């Protein structure tokens, strides 16, 4: 098992369903998790091109959701230092999240569920 065959991110069925709905209205989507204020601990979903990533961002992987274009997931490098030993799953719950994320008007909000990387994943990502 190597890092190329593993993913640090995944998506629940419920979040995938909402992503398909949002993509129908907004086109291709991406996630960014900053860890800052203003609900920054929640993943923010944007139409591709509405949030520009740069050298201070870490690419975590791509969510492959049936029926829509792959959804890239980024995190600020500073937050990644705290989360690099975890696998992240994007889920959705009822409630209003940040007004900047495209799901906000839907009465839903994305959130991160995490688990510690397995020994095999730690080795593949060069973290053991």
TrEMBL record:
Pfam families: DUF779 (PF05610). InterPro entries: DUF779 (IPR008497). This is DUF779 domain-containing protein.
């Amino acid at each position: 098992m190597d890092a190329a065959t593993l993913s640090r991110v995944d998506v629940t069925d419920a979040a995938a369903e909402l992503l398909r709905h949002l993509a129908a209205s907004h086109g291709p989507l991406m996630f960014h998790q900053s860890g800052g204020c203003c609900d920054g601990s929640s993943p923010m979903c944007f139409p591709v091109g509405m949030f520009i990533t740069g050298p201070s961002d870490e690419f975590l992987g791509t969510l492959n959701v049936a029926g829509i274009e792959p959804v890239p997931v980024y995190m600020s490098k500073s937050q990644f230092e705290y989360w690099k030993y975890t696998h992240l799953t994007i889920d959705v719950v009822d409630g209003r999240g940040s007004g900047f994320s495209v799901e906000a008007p839907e009465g839903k909000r994305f959130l991160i569920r995490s688990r510690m990387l397995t020994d095999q994943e730690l080795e593949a990502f060069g973290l053991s």
